[in-house]
TrEMBL record:
Keywords: DNA-binding, Transcription, Transcription regulation. The lineage of its organism: Bacteria, Bacillati, Actinomycetota, Actinomycetes, Frankiales. One of its GO terms (molecular function) is transcription cis-regulatory region binding. Residues 5-58 form the HTH lacI-type domain. This is Transcriptional regulator, LacI family. SUPFAM superfamilies: lambda repressor-like DNA-binding domains, Periplasmic binding protein-like I. It holds the Pfam family Peripla_BP_1. The keyword Ion transport does not apply.
Length: 335
């Protein structure tokens, strides 16, 4: 096995000390002749600097830490692309960890990111990790919470989120405009984004002189629970003698499961029931599924920019949702 070239080999080739090589590689002061000899030795020996050693001397690595709750959501793919593009442009490595929605694991992963002295942290974790994230920010590591707003953030703690109430309002207005009147909602639980989207749905219905009954909203925290949730909504509507003519899903990661639950029951979209969900994905156009989109790529870029060029004061950035109308709500029939 070939021996890895070391900084000592470069120093010997250039005829200088290892301290001089380190200084040149890190942009320190050196004469032009010395720098030329060092870089020539680096090139000829194909030397790769040790990022770990650099991090030790700098007191921080050059990696940008990202803690994701659930990579099954289409939202996170665009988010990661945006983060990676900014990191690459700033000579940073992206260190990604997926928590699988396990809060204890989330806390551990944020702690480990801190222990690895990442350049900064972008996190989509539960509120119960905020004390650890806040601790990192207070100790000089820029942190960005994505998908919700940080409460009373200290310097160094920022947030990038969506207008979730606006997303819910867009859902309600589109379904109403498509002539739907008996609407059920599948949401994924108590996350601020889910609560605010349902609140937006209610607001829009109220403004149109309608209401969204409590029993018209059901929670499914996992894909396995979705079939039961859809069945419950259909049964409740039938009991009220107002069969559902629309179903809204406020969590993009549950889209496939909700769509499957409807079609498995022989329900035709949109003839029997309109279907509207969050977050666009690769096969949505082929199936004609209408969606409320959030600009995940732009959100990822902005989050990473807050890490690589951190502002002095906390920043909270809110992006606007958009409707992509296809045909799953009966749009063509209403043209």
């Amino acid at each position: 096995m070939a021996k890895r070239v070391t900084i000592g080999d470069v120093a010997a080739r250039a005829g200088v000390s290892t301290a001089t090589v380190s200084r040149v590689l890190n942009g320190g002061v050196a004469t032009e002749a010395t720098a030329t000899r060092v870089w020539d030795a680096v090139t000829r020996l194909e030397y790769t600097p040790n990022a770990l050693t650099r991090g030790i001397f700098a007191g921080r690595s050059n990696a940008l830490g990202v803690v994701i709750r659930d990579l099954s959501s289409p939202f996170y793919l665009g988010l990661l692309r945006g983060i990676d593009d900014v990191a690459a442009a700033n000579d940073s490595l992206v260190m990604v960890a997926n928590t699988f929605r396990n809060v204890d694991h989330e806390v551990d992963l944020v702690r480990m990111m801190d222990e690895h002295r990442v350049r900064g942290l972008v996190t989509t974790t539960d509120e119960r990790t905020d004390s650890r994230t806040r601790h990192m920010a207070e100790n000089g590591t820029p942190c960005v919470i994505v998908a919700r707003t940080a409460q009373d953030p200290p310097s160094g703690l920022h947030s990038v989120s969506l207008d979730h109430v606006g997303a819910g309002r867009l859902m309600a207005m589109h379904l109403i405009e498509c002539g739907r009147s008996s609407i059920g909602v599948v949401t994924s639980g108590g996350r601020p984004s889910q609560i605010e989207r349902v609140a937006g749905l209610r607001q829009a219905f109220t403004q149109r002189g309608r209401s969204l009954a409590e029993e018209a909203v059901t929670v499914a925290t996992t894909e396995e629970e979705v079939d039961r949730a859809v069945g419950t909504l259909l049964a409740r509507a039938d009991d009220r003698r107002r069969p559902l003519d629309a179903l809204a899903c406020t969590a993009g990661r549950l889209t496939v499961a909700v769509h499957t639950a409807l079609t498995a029951r022989g329900i035709t979209i949109p003839d029997d029931i309109a279907f509207l969900t969050m977050d666009d994905f690769s096969w949505a156009p082929a199936l004609g599924i209408s969606v409320i989109t959030q600009p995940s790529y732009q959100m990822g870029r902005r989050a990473a920019e807050l890490v690589v060029d951190p502002p002095a004061e906390p920043v909270s950035i809110v992006f606007e949702p958009a409707l992509v109308a296809r045909r799953s709500c009966g749009e063509r029939a209403n043209v």
